[in-house]
Amino acid sequence: MISERETARRAFLAAQGLAGARRVALAGDASTRAYERLFPAAGASLILMDQPPSLETRPCPPGAGPAERAALGYNALARLAAGRVEAFVACAAFLRGLGLSAPVVLGADPGAGFALLEDLGDDLYARIIETGADEAPLYDCAVDVLLRLHHAAPPPVLAGDGETWPLLAYDALAFTTASDLFVEWLPRFRPSLNFSGEAAVDWRAIWAPIAARAEAGASVFCHRDFHAENLLWLPARAGVARTGLLDFQDAVLAHPAWDLSMLLHDARRDVSPGREAAVLARYLAARPDLDQEAFTADFHALGALNIARILGVFARLVARDGKPRYGAFMPRLWRYLDRCLAPPAPPGLAAWLDRHVPREARA
């Protein structure tokens, strides 16, 4: 029997003139989205994005206070887009307006949760580096993409291709929600751990000043998931357009160090200390307006918070969602966290970990 969702999918494709296209499912990720590559009878291949609206809690309305966000659920607390197609469409238009390679949106039905996209291909950074490509020009171009973004003042509401989406700040509540994932979910992944109420209070105290600094520094369009599995190499294009961008619908207004952390603390591939140093040097050389010492401290602090967040997310994916493959990425994250614990590290973090997470549990 054909499912209700498949019926809706076929109706959307028919409305786009693609009822007869050959469809090939693409590998999924940790989200509730699904993708297919479409092969029409004539012309280039296309991508179908399928995000059932019913699978996500609501996103954060502009102006919502902490109590309203808590009542709405995790997406509102964390200021995630809840997979909304209109967020993807509006973000893609903003990125293309800056000369960046976000997919062209050829058709969309946000209410039903479908979008028809330009197919940017399969040459993810992660895959072509695995097969021997020189990573240096790829990372240089990725940094230049961030510099293009960080030199452009984003509007409070993104608009394009008939859709709008608010660019909300990655604020202190969202950062607290992110760091809390670690203390909530790591013991469920690693039952030998047991964080007391006092330990949880101390954990929040470590991050509170960092979250405040991050909110105060929220000034740029932040992709939010800027890493080698979401970047494509498009060598036939020129300049920053050689880096194709995917999975940017959760974009927020954020501190410029956040996307650098996502790129350099990549959970799915090792980024060496040397590559990290080269990327930061390239970025800082192009930003003489920054206090380099303060920015480096923020990079270490937000990097540590980001890594703790991802450890919590992956622990949840394993313990709650039955996706054990994410456990294999966690040792790499612990190694990145060790790197962030070198000076200038967040005060108190190393001591907290030494008290509550023995070395043998950091794997």
Write the layout of secondary structure elements.
Blueprint: H1 4-15, E1 22-25, E2 34-39, E3 46-50, H2 66-72, H3 74-78, H4 85-97, E4 105-109, E5 114-118, H5 125-130, H6 135-150, E6 157-160, E7 163-166, H7 172-189, H8 197-216, E8 220-222, E9 231-233, E10 243-245, E11 252-254, H9 257-264, H10 273-285, H11 292-319, H12 330-340, H13 349-356
Antiparallel strand pairs: 1-2, 2-3, 3-5, 4-5, 6-7, 8-11, 9-10
Helix pairs in contact: 6-10, 7-8, 7-11, 8-11, 9-11, 11-12
Can you tell me the CATH architecture? Answer: Alpha-Beta Complex
Question: How many distinct folded domains?
Answer: 1
- CATH class bucket: Alpha Beta
The low-pLDDT segments are none
In the CATH hierarchy, what is the superfamily?
A: Aminoglycoside phosphotransferase (APH), C-terminal lobe
How much strand? Answer: 5-15%
Shape: globular
What is Rg? 20 Å
Question: How are helices and strands ordered from N to C?
Answer: HEEEHHHEEHHEEHHEEEEHHHHH
Tell me roughly what share of residues is in helical segments.
Answer: 40-55%
> For the residues shown, what is the average pLDDT?
95
How many beta-strand elements?
A: 11
Termini separation comes to 44 Å
- What is the name of the CATH topology? Aminoglycoside 3'-phosphotransferase, Chain: A, domain 2
How are strands sequenced across the largest beta sheet? Answer: 1-2-3-5-4
The profile of the biggest β sheet is: 5 strands, antiparallel
